Amino acid sequence: MSAQSNPVMKEAHRIAKANDQLITKIDTARKTNAQMPTIEYIVISTHSPDSKKLSLNVREHKSSKPASTIINSWRNLIELTVIPDLFNDNLNYKCEKYSDLVRLNKEMFVVAQKFELFGDSARAKAELEKFLTNFQSLHNNGFKQVEKLLAEPHSDLQQISKKVNDINCQIENMANINLNTRFQSAQITCEYCGKADTPLTRYSDGYLCCTNGPHPNSNAYQGQPVTDTYT
Ligand SMILES: [Zn+2]
């Protein structure tokens, strides 16, 4: 990438380069494919025996996923501005997966450089501004998000607990005003065989399963059981 004289192009170049550095970092994580710690939050509802009260509680579930799984399953539909295709580049602006981020960061830069050749025309400036906005979107809504997923997660439990407590207060207020309200739980069942009368265990792959296995074709037993057990 050559040195740019146009200040907008200079800024676009700076961000595209920052994106390249994140690509290097993310690709390194993919190659080593280490297990990355992840935190999920499970909200559990309980109601009082007389069905008059309902409260929600949030629990933290720590597990880990391979870096490549995290990168490959990342999705965010990023709305990019489609810039008129003056040079027949046929850029595909659809941006949803990590591979789209990488492709667009590279391909948009090549096209932006062609626009820069227009010099200081108002048209060229306007289009370069759009490219700059697109590079920023790739950075903020794409690369930085993937980078964050691969970093050591910090717990949001306190924050989520506070929100859940607010919801509990609202439920309580509602029940105090509407005295004929009753709370009931839907029966929790094994997500594979549908049985409800046995202990159910949440596995790290997300399945809630009973112990009446084997459950052929189910991933449940390949997952590691986690602490939440429903009886
Ligand atoms: Zn089952």
In short:
By secondary structure, this protein is an alpha+beta fold. It has helices spanning 7-32, 67-73, 98-116, 122-149, 157-177; strands at 35-47, 54-66, 200-203, 208-210, 225-230.
Plain-language structure description:
The chain has 231 residues and is of the alpha+beta class. The protein contains 5 helices and 5 strands; from the N terminus they run αββααααβββ. The chain has helices at 7-32, 67-73, 98-116, 122-149, 157-177; strands at residues 35-47, 54-66, 200-203, 208-210, 225-230. The strands form 2 sheets. A 3-stranded antiparallel sheet has the order 4-3-5, with no helix packed on it. It is elongated. Zinc ion binds next to strand 4.
Task: Give descriptors for this structure.
single chain, 231 residues, alpha+beta, 2 domains, 3-stranded antiparallel beta sheet, two-stranded antiparallel ribbon, 5 helices, 5 strands, 44% helix, elongated, binds zinc ion
Order of helices and strands: HEEHHHHEEE
User: Approximately what portion of the residues adopt beta-strand conformation?
Assistant: 15-25%
Helix content: 40-55%
Rg for CA atoms: 25 Å
Layout of helices and strands:
Elements (H helix, E strand, L loop, with lengths): L6 H26 L2 E13 L6 E13 H7 L24 H19 L5 H28 L7 H21 L22 E4 L4 E3 L14 E6 L1
Antiparallel strand pairs: 1-2, 3-4, 3-5
Helix pairs in contact: 1-3, 1-4, 3-4
